[in-house]
Amino acid sequence: MSKVIVENLNLFYGDFHCLKNNTLSIKERKITALIGPSGCGKSTLLRCLNRMNDLIEGVRITGRALIDGKDIYSRDINLIQLRKEVGMVFQKPNPFPLSVYDNVAYGPRVHGLYKTSKDAMEAVVAKSLSAVGLWEELKDRLDVSALNLALEQQQRLCIARLLAVEPSILLMDEPCSALDPFATLNIEELFLNLKEKYTIVIVTHNMQQAARVSDYTGFFLLGELIEFGNTKTLFVNPQNKLTEDYITGRFG
Amino acid sequence: MAKRINPLMLQRIVKAQLWSLTGFTIGILFFIIFFISIKGLPQITLEFLTSNPVDMGRSGGIFSTIVCTLYLIFVSLMIAMPLGVGAAIYLTEYTRESRLTHIIRFGTECLAGIPSIIMGLFGFAFFVMALGLGWSILSGGMTMSIMLLPTIIRTTEESIKAVPYELREVSFSLGVTRWQTVTKVVLPSALPGIVTGIVLGIARCIEETAVIIFTVGSSLRLPESFFDSGRTMAVHFYILAREGISMPNAYGTAAILILSILFINLSAYYLARQFLKKIC
């Protein structure tokens, strides 16, 4: 079933035509990878899905992006609700300069959840940390500053912080590019676990990563979606010459 | 051919010169503190701190001037803090760099450059006379708050700008509004800088003289409300010394002034470091 449908989406930075007529559909509880060379618009498309591009001046968007059948660019959309529903993990691990506990509790607190029950809040923190495999390591050190953690732990914590607001879609913007190869493998394993509950869209410039973790892959070039399909098919038997050139390393 | 100086020799000379320049600067500071302490510390007793001035300050203590100083700090900060921090939040978080923000910044810079005696005159003409508040801690506090604004705005702005953009971005991406992001993420991270601005403001209130004479007056009575006139420690010191009333008491007051400013700076430094240790 399609969780996200993008139809004829165009995005302009001022006069620059950044995304050209993108159309794709993202399946529920699958991992969809967006690949392509730097500046091809894959991150920009990702940021369209939680409307983070709204923060940039001079951005104009046409076309539609539907999540669960609802156009997120329509007038009556609740931006706060949308961003709770569609969470984002960034390139660089970016925990708040707070304790581990406060990082995870940040979202629920700000949204006024579990206000009355300390136990409920603690349960959510424990559940979120368990989901990213940090609970065993950190359950006795919840009050240490998140900035003291290793980079991989920090990125896991950022994902836990996101899970605490109970999204259904996770957008990952090159989530492993600041991590070493082993940490990257660990995080990829985490994605495979998370996909049982969440729809994941991952932007990566690491083709092997896309091939390893994703179910579907989209290849972007200069703002155009060149090819989209089943990951295995796309990597083994690409339909488009440009896709083939890119995944065989002839450019990029 | 010009005679070359041995580079090693030159290095030694320059090092010695730079060292002595630095030493000279620090030396002046220590000399002032030492001089005031020698002359002033013997005057300081518990009685000096807790009794009101008698006979124009010829004898008695400085209690009413301490109270007046504390009142003045309180009123000034209560006005300047929300205005200054609010303006800084607006300039950094709610507007993009534009002609308007440049004009606002230029305006606050100019405000910082106005000589305090002119500020005093303005406070006298506007708050004391035109608004009819008379010589009072309220008039003085409002005038002082205008003087504190540029410092508080600038230090707050700088420390807000130092908070990485990524933290705001991730907060927005969690569905958090801009205002919640400011109060929950930005301001806590920027707190040491904001505290620094406020501490500088407190020190300014303690040391300012010209503005206070014009707006708070120089009554030696213990102020009972913000509408009373009063005399701060700095003004008391000025009048005691200038009119030759009592040099020992003037030095005693000066010593308290210097010690309190030293104490405030040290505690601000300590607080900022504690805070940094906690978050890093």
In CATH, the architecture of chain A is 3-Layer(aba) Sandwich
The fourth-level CATH homologous superfamily of chain A is: P-loop containing nucleotide triphosphate hydrolases
Strand content of chain B: under 5%
Number of helices of chain A: 10
- What would you report as the Rg of chain A, rounded to the nearest angstrom? 18 Å
The value of Rg of chain B in angstroms is 23 Å
Count of all domains of chain B: 1
Helix residue percentage of chain A: 25-40%
Give the class of chain B from helix and strand content and strand pairing.
mainly alpha
Task: Give the strand tally of chain A.
Answer: 10
Walkthrough of the structure:
The complex is a heterodimer of chains A (252) and B (280). Helix content of chain A is 36%, strand content 27%. With 252 residues, chain A is α/β, with parallel strands linked by helices. Chain A has one domain: P-loop containing nucleotide triphosphate hydrolases (Rossmann fold), CATH 3.40.50.300. In chain A, helix 3 (100-110) packs across helix 4, helix 3 runs parallel beside helix 6 (151-163) and helix 4 (118-131) crosses helix 6. Chain A starts with a strand and ends in a 5-residue tail after the last helix. Chain B has one domain: MetI-like (MetI-like fold, Orthogonal Bundle). Chain B has helices at residues 7-40, 46-50, 63-94, 99-113, 116-130, 137-161, 165-173, 178-207, 210-215, 233-242, 247-279, and strands at 53-54, 59-60. Chain B has a two-stranded antiparallel sheet with strand order 1-2. The longest helix of chain B has 34 residues, at 7-40. The model of chain B has no long low-confidence stretch (mean pLDDT 91). Classes of the chains: A alpha/beta (252), B mainly alpha (280). The A-B interface holds A 50, 52, 55, 57, 79-84, 87-88, 90, 92, 94, 96-98, 106-107, 109-111, 145, 147, 158, 161-162, 165 and B 96, 164, 166-167, 169-177, 180, 184-185, 189, 278-280.
